[in-house]
Amino acid sequence: MVRFLIHGPHWFFGIDAVLELFAGIIALLIVLASWRYARLAKDKKYGALGNGFLFIFLAFISQIITTAFVFSEFRIGGTDTAMEISNALYVGHVAHVLLFLSGLIVLSVWALKIQGGMQRALIVALTMFLAIIGIT
Q1: C-alpha angle with apex 13: 12 to 14, nearest 5 degrees?
Q2: Which has the closest alpha carbon to 130: 101, 99, 87, 90?
Q3: Full-model pTM
Q4: Which residues neighbour 2 within 8 Å (Cβ) at sequence distance 6 or greater?
Q5: Helical (H) or strand (E) element with 5
Q6: DSSP element (H, E) containing 87
Q7: Distance separating alpha carbons of residues 127 and 68, to the nearest angstrom
Q8: Within 10 A of 6 (CB to CB), how many other CB atoms are there?
Q9: DSSP string for residues in 24-61
Q10: pLDDT by residue (tens digit) across 78-128?
C-alpha cells in the first residue's frame, strides 16, 4: 500500500534522504560559520544569515525524518496503515515547506536590507498566508 503513496522509483527510496543529508550538512556548516563570524566581527547581519540557513537546515532535517520513517515502514513492512503513513508524509511535507520558506524569508529580508518592522511583518504574513493556501 505504501508503494502508492510515494512518488518515484523503488530503487530511489532512501537515496533521497542521503542527498538531503548532504544538503543539510552544508546548510549547518553555513550556519556555524556565519554565527562564528558574527560573533568575532560583532556584526549582527551575519547572525541573521545564520538564522536563515538554520531554518533551511531544519527543513532538510524534517524531510529526512519523514523520508526515513516512510522508507522504514516500506522496508520492514510496518504495521502503520496507509492513512497514517499518508498523514506522516503530509505533516513532513508541510513542515519542510514552511521551514524552508521561513529561511528564504529571513535571507530575503537580510539581502534586501529591509529595516522597518512593519514591512518585515507584512512580508512574513503575506508569504506564510500564500504558502498555507498553496499547501492545502
Answers
A1: 110
A2: 101
A3: 0.79
A4: 70, 73, 74, 82, 85
A5: none
A6: helix 82-112
A7: 29
A8: 16
A9: HHHHHHHHHHHHHHHHHHT-HHHHHHHHHHHHHHHHHH
A10: 556 667 777 778 888 888 888 998 898 888 888 888 787 788 788 878 887
**Beta strands, E only, the chain:** none
Cell digits of residue 108:
530575503
Inter-residue contact 5 to 66 (CB < 8 Å)? no
85: helix, coil or strand?
Answer: helix
Residue 23, by phi and psi: left (phi above 0), alpha (psi -120 to 50) or beta?
alpha
Q: If you search the block for the grid coordinates 493556501, which residue do you land on?
A: 133
Encode pLDDT of 1-21 as tens digits: 444 455 566 667 667 778 888
- The C-alpha cell 554565527 sits at 35
Residue type, 124: V
Q: Which residue has the cell 531544519?
A: 58
